[in-house]
Structures are given as C-alpha cells and as structure tokens.
C-alpha cells in the first residue's frame, strides 16, 4: 500500500460500512483522517477505534452533506483539527427508501437522493478545491456505483444520482488536472456491508442471485473498495484522473441474457 504519511483525509459518511473501511485504510497508510457523518456518536466511536489501532490523528464531526452550511463547517472543523485537507472521499449515501417504477416515485425521494449523493459531493468538493489548488496537490474520490454505469429498473433516483457522479468526476478532473489535483470515482458492485447483510438475512435481497451474476461468484467486501481508494489517494496515482473504476467482481462486464457462459457447454 502506498504511503499517505503527512496527508490529511476527509471521509464523508465515514462512521460505518464502506466509509469506515476507507477511513481505516487511509489511517493504516499513515494519514490523519477526519470523519463526518449524520450519526455523531457513531462517527466519534469510529474515530476513536481507528485512531487507537493505527496511532494516527483522527477527528469526527457531524452534519448533513446536502447542507451548504454543514459542508463548509465540516471542512473547516476538520482542517482546524488536523490541517488542510489533501484527500476527500465523498462516500456519504443512502439506500433507496422505496423500490418502485419511475412514474410512482415520490418527488421527496427523488430530491433527497440527488441531494445526498450529487449535491453533497459537489458541496464538499467545492469547499476543498481552493486550498488544494494553492498547494498544487489534491485527491478527490467520489463514490459512484454500478447502478450509475448500467440500467437498473425501479431505482431511478439512485441510478441518476450515481450517473451524475460520473459527470461531476470528469468535469472536475478536467478543470483541476493542471493544479496537481486528481478526481476519480469508484463504482462498487454488491458489497456486503452490515446494512446489505441485514437485507439478505431478511429476504429483501437475494445474495445468491447477485453473487451468481458476478464473474467471481460472490459479493465484495468493504476493504476491497478501500484498498483501491488508498491507492487513488496516494501521490503515486498522479497519472490517473477522470476515471470511474468498477469494483464489482466483473458484474458490469457481463452482457449475456442470464446463462452461465463462463463454463464450456456440457460442463
């Protein structure tokens, strides 16, 4: 793993799930890490646990990523506690509250989904870019999804918000590349976070069906996303920008109508 010693990272939605794994990976690589989350107590507990394991500085703050005031305050608080932010991981997100056809989607679901995922990533990126430009170094990594790369029915608002992340990523990459700032996105597939584990156990998601569709035959683990995040955050990744990288076990590579074509006929 590349070293992040001397760097300051901020992870939104970092209290649990993929965000927590990313905060842990950054800390393991030597970065001081700030965590912001709606769940203030969970963010503080995560910061204490990770900081104790890796002997690096961690700080936690709470706020709504869709709030312009909260985003500005969170960035200022982390910078005051740890130093200017070198690395931003826009991870904060929510699951679709309803799985319904587009014509039945409540407007409040649409608005909240785009606000958390797309507006939140924009607000935090906007807040950190000026200082990154001054230092001529920065790493912004956005949480996309395979639903932003392929068509997914009944999850329209979620898919649109993640598709918007790809455009935001590429636009910011083009604007900031000459200032030493790279902007990339990671598109996880089905990752077995605690939230999704509970959904499989209650029958809301079929683990086996999604695992069978992936080339590797299983779901991913949060730390598998975090390892890529740590590399993209490092100075050594300086020639990678504007990329949207799936971490999905080959899920988006499949183009067949459902048959298992990974095995020769008759086997």
Task: Summarize the topology.
Elements: E1 8-12, H1 17-28, E2 32-37, H2 40-54, E3 58-62, H3 68-82, E4 87-90, H4 107-135, E5 138-143, H5 156-176, E6 181-188, H6 194-201, H7 207-213, H8 222-233, E7 244-247
Parallel strand pairs: 1-2, 1-4, 2-3, 4-5, 5-6, 6-7
Helix pairs in contact: 1-2, 1-8, 3-4, 4-5
What does this protein look like?
With 267 residues, the chain is of the alpha/beta class. Helices cover 45% and strands 14% of the residues. Strands 3-2-1-4-5-6-7 form a 7-stranded parallel sheet, sandwiched between helices. Helix 1 (17-28) packs parallel to helix 2 (40-54) and helix 1 packs across helix 8 (222-233). The N and C termini lie far apart (40 Å). The relative contact order is 0.14.
Largest sheet: 7 strands, parallel
List the strand order in the largest sheet. 3-2-1-4-5-6-7
Q: What's the helix-strand series?
A: EHEHEHEHEHEHHHE
Number of strands: 7
Quaternary structure classification: single chain
Structural class: alpha/beta
Radius of gyration: 18 Å
Which regions contain 5 or more consecutive residues with pLDDT less than 50? none
How far apart are the first and last residues' alpha carbons, in Å? 40 Å
The percent of residues in helical segments reads: 40-55%
Task: Enumerate how many helices there are, as a single number.
Answer: 8
In percent, how much strand structure appears in the residues? 5-15%
| Mass-distribution shape | globular
- For the residues shown, what is the average pLDDT? 93
